[in-house]
Amino acid sequence: MNRQTFTRHDPKRRAVIDHRKKQFAESSYQENTYPHRLNFYSVPPTADITLEQFEQWAIDRLRVLAELEACAFRNRGQDETAAHMKPFLEKYLPLGANSSSRGQEQSARLQEQRQKDHYSHFILRLAFASTEDLRRRFARVETALFRLRLQSDDINERAAFVQSLNLDWEQVSDKERKALREELAATSAAGYGAKIQPEEETWCKVDWERVPELVERRVVFLRGGKAYVPSREQQSMVVAEFTKALEKTLEMTARALPRLDEDDRLTPILNHLSKNFITPDAGYSSNTATPGAEISARNIDKLSSHFPACMSNLHRTLRRDAHLKHYGRLQYTLFLKGIGLSLDECLVFWRGSFSKITDDTFNKEYRYNVRHAYGDVGGDSNRRGGGYSPFSCQKILTEHPPGPGEAHGCPYRHFNMENLTALLQGMGVSDRGVLQGVKDDKENQKFHMACNRVFEHVHKAEIKKARDEGIMTANQLETIVHPNEYFKRSFILKNLDKKTEDVKMQG
Amino acid sequence: MADAAPSESFQVADQIKEEDTIDDSSKEEKKGDVKLEDLFADAESDDEFPSSRPAAATQSSSPGEMTPTSSQEGDTLKASDPEVMKSFYQRLFPWRYLFQWLNHSPTPTNDFSHREFAFTLSNDAYLRYQAFPTSEHIKKDVLRLMPSRFEIGPVYNTNPRDRKTLRNSTAFKPLSKELCFDIDLTDYDDIRTCCDKANICNKCWQFMTMAIKVVDAALREDFGFKHIMWVYSGRRGAHAWVCDKKARSMDDQKRRAVAGYLEVIRGGAQSGKKVNLRRPLHPHLTRSLDILKSHFQEDVLEVQNPWETDEQAEKLLQLLPDRQLNESLRKKWNSAPGRASLSKWADIDALAKTGASKSLDAKALLEAKQDIVLEYTYPRLDIEVSKKLNHLLKSPFVVHPGTGRVCVPIDTRSLEDFDPLGVPTVQSLLAEIDAWKEPEEVDPNSRPVQDWEKTSLKPYVEQFRAFVLALMKDERDVKVKRERDEGPESMDF
């Protein structure tokens, strides 16, 4: 309905020329100027750039975004991410503050930087608008980039930028602030450690829907649907606005994309860009079977020695209780699917494992879900896509934390140290040094590190051999970020040994 | 309708026909004027809830045709028996109020007609994406298919039945749904001692009472929601339906935010201490703690006695921070096996005061104790239900196929009095209709008594009706206000 009005940010963009003459006319668009370091990207670029620039700028931005996603994925904290990203940002996408520019030359350089930032954002927007999945990821990393820059922005310039956005926030009056002193004090200190008197802070009052992130973390006081946001947290409101606007415009770009009447200059570049946006959580292609493994229902017990802690725990729980709750079943089913267990075998496996229930109950309550995960039933898109893909560590770590009585999730994250130690000992890890290392990793929230540490310990001899004999390259031995990769590598390493023995014997 | 002689024996088919004609005539009346009050007067008088004739007449109708003829027979029938279900849907289910509740207006709108219903049939087939223009249509289809229960999903941007005709699958999108919460006593299995799995008793129902109090207070005071209905789920849990317009139109992110705000108990079976809160406590948690404190003493420590054995007490010790103190507690409790949880809880402070531990951090101990209170009382929500816009939830007033109990609304004003085991079963309700006798003196002007009014379902239906009325009033006020705001010129003459 109001799509028209939405895209017309600027009245000057309206086509005032007769459409027949349009292609010969000079551009009458307003030239972009960039008064602020940050950009909400609400106005599309209008000037001409070369094809080389088009590609180069996009690739530079992509490098930054990919690195940023990798940071989120490795569970790096905010400060750590900022430190890690600094050289990347300076190299590929520098963005100076107003205060850093003195004189004509530097000011021009600043405008150039900002133009590149602006244009590259819009190029990638075109490249990543096509599917829902890409849109979501793009919005997520762009938001992360925006947040990073907002935090590093000069205080005065940030204030000016926020001012320019014209967001309507109601200030909390002194009287109300005094009346709610205690409640506000309880939230203002939350998450900071330092106790700041609520009187010393400015607060603003907005509908809670505008700051869902703060509500979810319980860091704002709520009353009657209004959230009381301390000035420091206003940053996250700006970020939320940014995400909201970006998601909306991405959707619109997607709708306009088919009408992008484009010759063969840009489309190949755009396709190439979106294809190269491959990062660790891009999933594990389940069709890469593990060579030499007999993957069948009756073999799972044997194979489970190659499972990472998360799956090992699910397997143990299943054997102990003859049951798993929904997300446990899902996580485990998809993992089994990923190691190459066929649907039929998977059904055999679950039927056998749920030994306390009747065939009837199994068929009624569980069979469908397994088939759904394999894409055997369900909506068109599910069947066409072959069901869900196996969960990556990222997904297991961040989505659906286990509740009471549930066994899914990542033990390194969701277990307490005692239970984790017990599990690891059950898996045959009793080396003190390793356990201490795992403990440190866990405390520093480096769950991947802990898992890889255990992997390296369990496969110490084999890894050394593989490396020494050059059977596996360093590339093939980099950090594991997917449970199925853990299995595959473990299986190959353990059997690589056998194979070479075979060879020796033959020799 | 008053003309219909009560002496005639009647049959189901006749009755449906009769209803149809009445409904048509009332519809014509509706076209002229859509005043809410008028429509309600209308709702009272028409045959939405058919009235069976006096008991004598019912008995004369062919037996087994629609109702069990005697109360004994009613008790022996299973709740899932098709005849029982048929009578229930035909005579007792409040279709009109269900329609008004989901439609938010007396005249049919897309809020109802684009709403997804999902039926679970008696052979356990699950039919999704059902949709109906009015309450009559859904009633007819339910009587045709006889689902053992049905669930309510979101309102979609098009009629769910037409979803396949859309260009692509992404064009079919959910727009709005009530914000829902689901609390289930099975999630309390590690802290309740009286029952487990699907079993409940009045002792462990107290957990539900606490949960409802805490969640209800947060939704009303913090989020400012007004139209919150709690419904007994028929066996071991309760659902909340937050029906405010603002709540209905929330997207997944906002639903997730509310869920996260309310979620305190985190961690699976292996994660140890499940409550780890930042200090100072958020005002929501301070309030919850105030609500829960007395329940903790009475309903948990006294009634559940969760740390009676040494093994159980060990669980408590694991949640306490001070090693030395734990040692002395362990010693004390070992010497007095079977010491009640209430005393054990008191022992913690008593021993702490005597200086059993030199390095005792009083603040840490207090905080740990607060965390324990919350771990044993704070609501354990099945949070996935609340996070997704397109999650389906069982409709109020359907019958739980296992227990036969009707999913009735819970009155939060007399929450403590709610007895899940006293909720009427479908068999008992049908028996009540049969046992009902027309009062001796009948006021000739009174409207005929409807079937639900003859049963113990009456207070629940009335409560539902009042809830729906208040909701519709608010929706209408908003509309009126908007019209006034938008067109002041039209008022100026």
TrEMBL record, chain A:
Swiss-Prot/TrEMBL keywords: 4Fe-4S, DNA replication, DNA-binding, Iron, Iron-sulfur, Metal-binding, Primosome
Cofactor: how bound: Binds 1 [4Fe-4S] cluster.
Recorded GO MF terms: 4 iron, 4 sulfur cluster binding; DNA-directed RNA polymerase activity; metal ion binding; single-stranded DNA binding
One Pfam family this sequence matches: DNA_primase_lrg_N
Gene3D superfamilies in the cross-refs: 1.20.930.80
GO biological process: DNA replication initiation; DNA replication, synthesis of primer; double-strand break repair
Residues at which [4Fe-4S] cluster binds: 310, 393, 410, 451
Record protein name field: DNA primase large subunit
Organism for this UniProt entry: Coniochaeta ligniaria NRRL 30616
From TrEMBL, chain B:
Single GO MF descriptor: metal ion binding
EC numbers on record: 2.7.7.-
Annotated region described as Disordered, given as residue ranges: 1-79
Keywords: DNA replication, DNA-directed RNA polymerase, Metal-binding, Nucleotidyltransferase, Primosome, Transcription, Transferase
Start-end of Polar residues biased regions: 57-74
Record's keyword annotation contains Nucleotidyltransferase: yes
Ranges of biased composition (kind: Acidic residues): 39-49
EC top class, as a word: transferase
Amino acid composition bias (Basic and acidic residues), ranges on this chain: 15-38
GO cellular component, one term: alpha DNA polymerase:primase complex
InterPro entries, per database record: DNA_primase_S, DNA_primase_ssu_euk/arc
UniProt-listed GO biological process terms: DNA replication, synthesis of primer
Range of residues in the leader sequence: none
Family the UniProt entry places it in: Belongs to the eukaryotic-type primase small subunit family.
Record's protein name: DNA primase
Lineage per the UniProt record: Eukaryota, Fungi, Dikarya, Ascomycota, Pezizomycotina
